[in-house]
Amino acid sequence: MCNAIMQELKSFHTEFCPMASKDKGKGEEMKIKILILTMVLIFGFVIVPNVDAKAGIPDKVRIGLYYNDEKGGYNNTVANLKLSSSKGVRIYSSGTKGSLLWKYDGSKSITITKDSTSNKRLLVKSEDGSIVLKRDSLLYIVPGANVISVNGSKYRGAIEIKIVNGRDMTVINHVGLEDYLYGVVPCEIQSNSHTEALKAQAVAARTYVLNNMDKHAHLGFNLCARPVCQVYKGYSVERASTNAAVDGTKGKIVTYKGKPATTFYFSSSGGMTENVSNVWGGKFPYLVSVLDQYEGKNSWNYNWNKEFSPIEIEEIMKRRGSDIGRLTSIDVTKRSEAGRVIEMQVKGTKGSETFKNNNCRTVFSLYSQLFDVDMGKGMFMVSSDDNIYSSTTVNKKVVSAYGTAIFTKHAKNLSVIGAGYKGILEGTPNTIKITGKGWGHAVGMSQEGAKGMAVEGFRFDEILRHYYPGTKVE
Q1: Which of 37, 223, 235, 253 could make an S-S bridge to 229, C-beta 3.0–4.6 Å?
Q2: Helix (H) or strand (E) run with residue 248 in it
Q3: Based on the domain organization, do 323 and 424 belong to the same domain?
Q4: How sure is the predictor about 410, in pLDDT bands with cuts at 50, 70 and 90?
């Protein structure tokens, strides 16, 4: 009987969390009353679930500050860590429920290093360099005040330090979810933006956490502090405006059919966001192309251009393992309805390579997929089917009274002498110009667009529903 009631109470909590439908009707209200009455009759007291909590929203998160991810090709580990807090620190064996190993009530710093004589031992040194603690594998450090300084950067919460694979110190910040967002939002959007834009960013960032809690599970933490997750710089970057935006949306997330939505966001789109299928593939009914008319046209990298020499393009291709020889052309062969390049061919004298979707952007480290390629005036050729096209001089044949020759290099200019004509034809330009709009992958919410919508009077939930059509903010 007791187990049955507890199971029913569990079902009740799931049904009534705001992740599910808000309007369950009067029948559900009666269900609540019956459950409460039953608990009172049997146990003499009542357990009231927290109906405001979202299922799956964690109280705390673990953020990797320093780590070595061999799989991901990233390593920012350091040999020494200097830590301090205005009211000292407590060092435990594993969390605050572990054994208290050492405590210090002063404000001076301590240094933690790896023992050079052991592949798993950590050393804690006082400011004068004397060793005050030796510990294998793991230390859990709690500041006496609310903030701890780690190599000059300040963070809320606690710090875990452990040795991974016998050689590297992994440093993890254990921090409350809302405190974590304090250190994320001002890194992802300007803190002087309109309040509603800041709130939209806070909700999107909070929702992102729910869908990425296991992103770095193989390294022992949830998320990293880098752009591949969300930029996080802790207490050092907190601002009153962004903290207020986090507080003002506490617990709110973006949902689709009762589940956390995938809330990608980026800087600017150049006028229209993109369907996720044209960037990374896959299908999400709410990650589709929408008009983005409120973006600030003067925002950073809204209009951009990059220049390459033919040799630079050839070297980039070689580093990718594709030796195309001498570059002959870069052709955009397909665009999305929003105008982004979703198929592109890079051709050379030895072969070509075709790029699709987001790879059209990343191959040359471009700011967005919305771009045009200008190979310069080049040289105009007439094909056998009478079509005119521009090309470089590379691998082209020249026929004269002295025989046939083939260009093996990029010719800047070509002298032509004929019956009654003498002139110069421009060959391959020294510079290939790529001009584009927007900054980022363009999937989901445009931060510049959100700022513009907020200025025009849209609320944060209206902004989010615009960029993630069909979703709810609850």
Answers
A1: 223
A2: helix 240-248
A3: yes
A4: low
Q: Is the pLDDT of residue 164 over 90?
A: no
Domains: count for the chain: 3
Digit-coded pLDDT (tens) for 45-91:
333 332 333 557 899 999 999 999 988 899 999 889 999 999 999 99
Among the three residues 237, 252, 267, which one is the final residue of a domain in this structure? 252
In a domain, 443, yes or no: no
Other CB atoms within 10 Å distance of the CB of residue 106: 15
Structure token digits, residue 283: 């299908």
| Contact by Cβ (8 Å): 347, 327 | yes
Round to the nearest angstrom and report the end-to-end CA distance of the chain: 34
Q: Assess if residue 290 is contained within a domain.
A: no
Neighbouring-strand partners of residue 35: none
More confident residue, 399 or 181: 181
Average pLDDT over residues 84-105: 91
Same domain, 330 and 386: yes
What's the domain range around 22?
A: 2-43
Residue 30: pLDDT over 60: no
Q: Let me know if residue 124 belongs to a domain.
A: yes
Q: What burial letters (b/e) apply to 40-52, b meaning 16+ CB within 10 Å?
A: eeeeeeeeeeeee
Is 245 found in the same domain as 110?
yes
